[in-house]
Amino acid sequence: MNELELRHQVCFALYAASRAVTDVYRPILDELGLTYPQYLVMLVLWEQDPAAPTVKDLGAALELDSGTLSPLLKRLATAGLVTRSRSARDERVVEVALTAAGRALRDRVGEVPRQVAAATGLTEDELVTLRHTLTRITAAVHEQQSVHRQKEN
Q: Which of 1, 13, 61, 92 has CA 20 to 30 A from 132's CA?
């Protein structure tokens, strides 16, 4: 086996699969007026509702920095799906809350996970196993990065 062949690269398989799945989401989410990253933000907000997580909390949940997250939140606020407000306890902290329209949108996305799952051709058990494996990969890579950063300091 030639390890330098593209077909043997785990990174490419992950990249190609990610792009393919995101392409499945695109037309479905277009009908809802959302991009894929906005959909992910909304998932976290629906999960935490009625709490109003901070931008920092959202960033941690989605593994996004505030520079990436802030424009997403601005567009969601412009669309009337969320509000952004300074915390009464600490002005430096911005809290994000769903609007009535943002809550109502949740009812319209119920079929999205099933549509995407069907497009994969995998069984429910295979999808659970895949998600578990990807979660383990992410955790292991983050751990290695953390160890590497500690060695540098």
A: 1
